[in-house]
Structure prediction request, 622 residues.
Amino acid sequence: MATQSSRIAARLMVAPSVILLFVWMIVPLALTLWYSFRIYRLLSPERSGWAGFQHYAWFLNSPDFWLAISNTLLLVGGVLAITVILGILVALLIDQPVWGQGPLRILVISPFFVMPPVAASIWENLFMHPQNGMFASFAQGLGFQPILFLESYPMSSVIFIVSWEWLPFAALIFLTALQSLSSEQMEAAEMDGAGAMSRFRYIVMPHMTRSITVVILIQTIFLLGIFGEIYTTTQGGPGSASTTLPYMIFKQAVIAKDIGRAAAGGIIAVILANIVAFFLMRSMGKNLDA
Amino acid sequence: MGKITLHDVRKNFGATEVIPGIDLTIENGEFVVFVGPSGCGKSTLLRLIAGLEDTSGGVISIDGVDATALPPAKRGLAMVFQSYALYPHMTVRKNIMFPLKMAGMEIGEATRRADAAARVLNLTNYMERKPGQLSGGQRQRVAIGRAIVREPAAFLFDEPLSNLDAALRVNMRQEITELHQSLKTTMIYVTHDQVEAMTMADKIVVLNAGRIEQVGSPLELYNQPKNTFVAGFIGSPKMNLITGPEAEKLGAATIGVRPEHLDVVSEGGWSGIVGLSEHLGSDTFLKVTTDIVGTLNVRAGGEVRLRHGDRVNLIPQAGKVHRFGADGKAMA
Prediction:
């Protein structure tokens, strides 16, 4: 890439993919933006025309909106906290030389291969179900009333299920980070008089910051859009207790069949994602520099 | 103080016996080099002394205290690793101060010691840099700095120069030797390079397959090798080891002649044809294929004008022939 002509050639070569990706991104965004200012209801197609900011106003004035925003952030934050902390502990555990290490690691990773609605159904029906669930039978065996997980603690239950799905991903990334830590560094720290806790704090944790950052960034992208687990289990309820922004948009698009309103919600979701991304990159972006 | 005594120290990895039993005394203030071919157990022995590996048997004592079961941090030893093992996320200053911080030393005293170490090692201008921004030689010095601030009973070096280029290696070799002169602390140095061993050591320990072949000063090993292994390992170019009728004439199974102890003469002796000839100016290294004793390394003067294909006659200097018995041991 040294000469002028090779630089121009390189730009020409990558141009088709860049243009394709740009169109791929900009067309749906532009359409969504367009619909968000239009009256577009599938149940009354005869009504059309400009809506102005009324869809946005509807969202901002909706009593569920701020709850949905806070639920979305709670879901992202809760799952991140659980998966990062437990992920580090699990990674430390399965990094130890034990008998059957290979199968053990596959077992630890396997929840990640279960599709989200399937995972949610398994948890709902086999574990959290008040009559048939394993937790209920434990509770009854100990003489307690079964806990109505999805009714009494809907958000916590959803966070728990999503964390179960994402824990293997975090643990896997952290495990590879642990394995790339040079053993001589650990031995040097040992010779320098650092105990196990000091080695973890001063050697292991700084070594892991980059992979922790990667896990947080990747998971945030996926967690902001979590939908299947809520749809399968609580359907956003009871009431609106477990409604998140994506679920609220789904209700407007598929249940109310109001495309204009749903599009406005989509744009709000894009803005929210950008705000989250901005703060994440500001606080952690420097960890990604080499 | 730093007197280290090994008594019948053994190490097995599973069923493999790496060190079958070693007795060795390292006196306070000595510069001891463990040398041997790769896989001879020299690094394992160093790690046993450091406490990074558990012994399978025997006793290691440091300054008269049984240290066999002590964890590495409690032995009062500092180690410099082959890869330097610097902490990449800490600045040079923090790297050097890390052992002091772990020892709970008060920050002022720790800073003072780190600065002193930096002055000795010419690192003063690099204290706020990260290891990634340093050259190989500077990283090496940081690793040494991290070792000296602790004022350990002994330093352990595990092939510390093998990642440096040739010129820097010679430099660092001298710096480490000078450091030993000024600190007068016991140093144990592992290398596979017999030149490093010869130039740095007060005492060389030649290891082969986990056994000590010979212990002695560099010149002792050079002049009186106890067996054919030491004879062949110490010295560059290698000593010529000759077996067969020529050795039997002197009543030995093997005779050894160093390259510099072969004289090029006009007639008599062993006749042969020059193969390779390397003219270094000060010396000329010849590889001569002789008619009766195989290929010999010869170190001749710089003014020798022999070329590939020339016929020469070689005679070993009187009294410079080493004789070894059938068991490989030197004969009186």
